Amino acid sequence: MKLSVVYALVPKTKFKAAIVAPLENVLKLASEVGINGIELNIPNPFEVNVTELEKKLSDYGLELSALSTGLSYVEYGYSLTHPSEELRKKSIEFFVKYCEIAHRLSKYNRVVIGLARGRSEGRSREEVLNILRSSIEEILKRTNGYGTTLLVEPINHYETDILNKLDETIEFIKSIGSPRVKLLLDTYHSTIEEKSPYDAIARAREYIGYVHVAENNRLAPGMGMLDWERIIYRLIAVGYSDYLSIECIPYPTYEEMVRTGVETLRRVLELRY
Question: Does residue 32 have an active-site annotation?
Answer without folding.
Answer: no
